[in-house]
Amino acid sequence: MADLLELDRIRLAYDTPQGLRPVVQDLSLALPAGHIGCLLGQSGCGKTTILRAIAGFEPVRAGHIALDGTIISSESVLVAPEHRRVGMMFQDYALFPHLTAAENVAFGLRKLMNKAQRAARVKEMLDLVGLSAAADSYPHEISGGQQQRVALARALAPSPDLLLLDEPFSNLDVDTRERLAFEVRDILKSTGHTAILVTHNQAEAFAIADRIGIMSEGKVVQWDTPYNLHHHPATDFVRDFVRREALVEQRQQAYARGR
Amino acid sequence: MQTDSLPRPWRLRGPERGAGWLLGAALIAFAVLLPLGALAWQALDADLSHWSHLATYVLPQALANTAMLLLGVGILVTMLGTGAAWLVTAYDFPSRRILTWALLLPLAVPTYIIAFAYLDLLHPIGPIQTAIRTILGYDSPRDFRLPDLRSIYGAIFVLGFVLYPYVYLSTRVMFMTQAASLLEAARTLGAGKVGVFVRVALPLARPAIAVGASLALLETLNDIGASEFLGVQTLTVSVYTTWVTRSDLASAAQIALTMLAIVVGLILLERHGRKRQRYANTQRMRPMQARRLRGGAALLAIVLGWIPVLLGFIAPAWYLVVETSKRLHLVGGVSDQLINGLTNTVTVAFAATVVTLGCGLIVAWAGRTLRESARLNPGRACARIASLGYAVPGTVLAIGLLMPFTWIDRQLGSMFGTQGLLLMGSTGALVCAYTMRFLAISVGGIEAGLSRIPPSLEQASRLLGENASGTLRRVHLPLLKPALATAALLVFVDTMKELPATLLLRPLNFETLATWLYAEAARGTYEEGAVAALAIVVAGLVPVILLARTNLKMGH
């Protein structure tokens, strides 16, 4: 299968009064269509910056990012976020507080379809995440888990080529987190969406992702399937990182039971 | 699910932020710098014979008067403001809670109105001096009279009693948030009640005093009415008379430039204070426990606390109410000219509010950042420049605008072949001047409102296909409504009260409430001035109430 997303030797850096401070150096990875990728690492390792670069909020200083064969970010190209067909689920969900759940989901559809199609699509998406009953509620009236489903429905409604998930489960309590992580995987697989998840939680990463990148200090140490990370770690760092295998498999079984 | 049926928008290469917004913000920032540039040009262009005349006959006296006024007002507002803030923070006594916000009331009285009121109140045959003579048993003003208010000391007195709330506000917030544990530590180390204030509270409050006092002094520099009524030839008054009576624009520009130098000094003082204040603010502390006063001490506190309110607000406001009701009973209504002045004021203030808010929105929106990694934000630089007008005295701004406006009028005239003056002959010039002077209020208010909206909302909107303008319209404008309403109110009232720039830039025979009052006071005909003044004070109360609600909440 062709790679949908390709990051080719990208470099990301922040402007500081002392000059450019590099955050990510020479990073490459590719994700085939329909797969769920995951960047796993401690906070401050640059994983969120990579997500922001894919979304178009940060420029690429070297290398390029290609989506479906088109270069969307390079030293000389920066396609505006609204033209990328990339959706994103934010850590704080970023629901518009003045709009109802249905209006939030409809937000990105206005330029794509007429009113009747929009209403049908909103209903379809809310059904998909199991929130039809809360269509007319405002974000502050529903629970954190429900807000997250609205955020997922909103991000998927315009049918983006790629979905980005920034620590999507970190604001939820442990029980909800495990259940929802699993649900999100099911939904993405059923719609055939390609997605990239950023997290510091191993259990979450191994439960959801088809490909995982272990990150350290602005580099992807190994970009591989969960199986290979377990059985063929590329470096000592990766082996130490995923050592608590038993615990992880235990978690995976717990997720499977939830299914 | 059918995803293929969805139409694909074109993939466009676009700038990360709407370039149009940045361009708009840059134009607005340029417009604010224009009068300052024009002023410098005008001042340097003039031949130096003017300058030597100025330097010999006008400047020394005006400079001395202004320096004296700034010094006196600075000392008075610092004493009144810091003292009052300490009194209501450190001590508890009957009426303290009311006093906490009542101390802000003088902010509603513009400097020219308090001078106007006291000139009549303290007139040798006015109510106060007559009462004193009756008590002391004198028959005529020839036997006994108070020192004349029309002096530099009178000006310091009236300005100090309406401008001290700037210092009160900044020091009060400081005392409430910072002082408690430090003061308690000082007490345990054996410092007495007075020692705590002098050795701990006062040094702590220094940055806050610098901020409040520099704002009060900028107002002092801006004042034209009070100094003029009280016969104090300050720099501001000199600029005005040099242009209006001598039509000498070059000299006026030179004096105005001198004033700008003082303004820069005051801004530096304020910045310095703010920097140190921020430094202190990082440690959050609980409010201090007020000491309960009883008996004579409580009475003394009540008297001391209410004196600034009495002199700065109650006395002049009461005078205006009495005079207004007398006038209404006598004549049975107000004149058409006054109604006309009111209509003019409201119309021009409304127009200025709309323009100021629109410009503020453009500047603030261009200044927000989508990129976390950016060091230089040109939009934010524009916002800082566009906000400079708050510090430029109205007279200086007006003189700086005369030349560009005349030039634009001439260009427009030759373009359309008309004789009329489109800007100077209409209220267009006024609206421009108000916008520049009060843009800081709307930019600041909208920026504060924007900062309360999480940046992820804009990112979400952009990723859902909206561009910068669409995001502003669909997400941020609805969420900014309260901030916009507050900013609109503040700009509207400040425009209503504005006198110095209005005097210089209004079209012929165009009177606002403020200029109407000025004309009556200048002529010495106290007819309907009180009615106009009362209308301005009542409008001015609204922002004071808002201020009290947002800034002094912690006290309750």
Give a quick rundown of the structure.
The complex is a heterodimer of chains A (259) and B (556). With 259 residues, chain A is α/β, with parallel strands linked by helices.
* Second-tier CATH architecture of chain B: Orthogonal Bundle
CATH architecture of chain A: 3-Layer(aba) Sandwich
- Overall pLDDT of chain B, averaged? 85
Helix and strand composition category of chain A: alpha/beta
Proportion in β-strands of chain A: 25-35%
Number of helices of chain B: 20
CATH topology of chain B: MetI-like fold
Helix content of chain A: 25-40%
> Would you identify the CATH H-level superfamily of chain B?
MetI-like
List the uncertain runs of chain B. 1-17
What is the average per-residue confidence, as pLDDT of chain A, rounded to a whole number?
87
What can be said about the biggest beta sheet of chain B? 2 strands, parallel
Structural class of chain B: mainly alpha
Strand-and-helix sequence of chain A, N→C? EEEHEEEHHHEHEHEEHHH
Shape of chain A: globular
What portion of the residues of chain B fall into strands of 2 or more residues?
Answer: under 5%
Could you tell me the number of beta strands of chain A?
10
Strand order across the biggest sheet of chain A?
A: 6-7-8-3-9-10
Main sheet record of chain A: 6 strands, mixed
Can you walk me through this structure?
- The complex is a heterodimer of chains A (259) and B (556).
- By secondary structure, chain A is of the alpha/beta class.
- Chain A has a single domain, classed as 3-Layer(aba) Sandwich (Rossmann fold).
- Chain A has nine helices and ten strands.
- In chain A, α3 crosses α4 and α6 crosses α9.
- With 556 residues, chain B is an all-alpha fold.
- Chain B has one domain: MetI-like (MetI-like fold, Orthogonal Bundle).
- In chain B, 75% of the residues lie in helices and 1% in strands.
- A two-stranded parallel sheet of chain B has the order 1-2.
- In chain B, α2 crosses α11 and α4 crosses α6.
- The longest helix of chain B has 43 residues.
- Chain B is globular, with a radius of gyration of 26 Å.
- At the A-B interface, β1, α1 and β6 of A face α16 and α17 of B.
